[in-house]
Write a structure and sequence with these properties.
The protein is of the alpha/beta class. The protein is 39% helix and 25% strand. It is built from ten helices and seven strands. The protein binds S-adenosylmethionine.
Length: 240
């Protein structure tokens, strides 16, 4: 499973960056997440782990706010684009840091990608100092103007590896959490562009090759039209 996720993101760099250039969505999520984390911590959020830093969108946002940001990602190809320093190739489930290293651990659109978030959550707690803050953003889907889930009637092979409710439950087991929902106005064209990212199309067709699954996802979404809303859940927890 982890190998597949790594390979999916290794194959996603240019499509990911094309989507981000058009929408700025991941930068917006990182900015909002940092603000929620800063509001709930004890006032010090300087040493930050960008967990699932990817090609550097969230790393740049955190770098503007925190004095020391460490970027960690499982995908070597995504990290190659990341201009943050230090950049470490690694897995959430085995963080290569001493206990109590960070004021904050931020999973911007990344914790829902692991098969079992409880392991990553335990690791996050271990590397946080007492009073440190964990934050995660996980997807709630795409909705039409009348509130219908775009994927409700579409025939695809699967959904995300881990449900957003399970991400929240894993965090709530270990931390005192606050949560909320962010809603972004978007379009069917952006929905298609999002699924031109092989790692995102893998959510729909995990068994196909990157090219095949993108082709099939774009075909599946061909009939979706007009304006949409994309929703993301944020979850922030404080280490006690
Ligand atoms: C949707 S991207 C988000 C990247 C970045 N945070 C941003 O805002 O653009 C998710 C990232 O999580 C990484 N990832 C997934 N599972 C991981 C794991 N177990 N350990 C470390 N990184 C992981 C992926 O390689 C990918 O780069």
């Amino acid at each position: 499973m982890k190998d597949a996720i790594k390979a999916n993101f290794d194959a996603s760099v240019s499509a990911y960056d094309a989507y981000e250039r058009r929408t700025g969505r991941f930068a917006a999520l990182a900015r909002l997440l940092y603000a929620e984390m800063a509001a709930r911590g004890d006032g010090t959020l300087d040493a930050l782990l960008d967990a699932g830093a990817g090609s550097g969108v969230s790393t740049r946002v955190f770098g503007e706010a925190a004095s020391r940001t460490v970027a960690l990602d499982i995908s070597r190809e995504m990290l190659r684009e990341n201009s943050g320093s230090p950049c470490i190739q690694g897995d959430f489930d085995h963080l290569p840091f001493a206990d109590g290293t960070f004021d904050g651990v931020a999973f911007t659109a990344s914790l829902f990608l692991v098969p079992d978030p409880t392991v990553a959550v335990e690791e996050a707690e271990r590397v946080l100092r007492t009073g440190g803050v964990v934050g995660a953003v996980a997807p709630l889907g795409w909705y039409t103007d009348d509130g219908t889930d775009v994927f409700e009637t579409l025939d695809r092979d699967s959904r995300s590896p881990t449900r957003t409710d399970d991400v929240e439950a894993a965090l709530a087991e270990t931390f005192a959490v606050s949560t909320g929902t962010w809603r972004f106005a978007t379009t069917a064209d952006d929905l298609r562009l999002f699924h031109e990212i092989p790692a995102m199309a893998a959510r729909l067709y995990p068994r196909l090759s990157p090219d095949e699954r993108v082709e099939k996802a774009v075909e599946l979404l061909d009939t979706v039209d007009g304006t949409l809303e994309q929703r993301w859940r944020w979850i922030v927890g404080v280490s006690e």
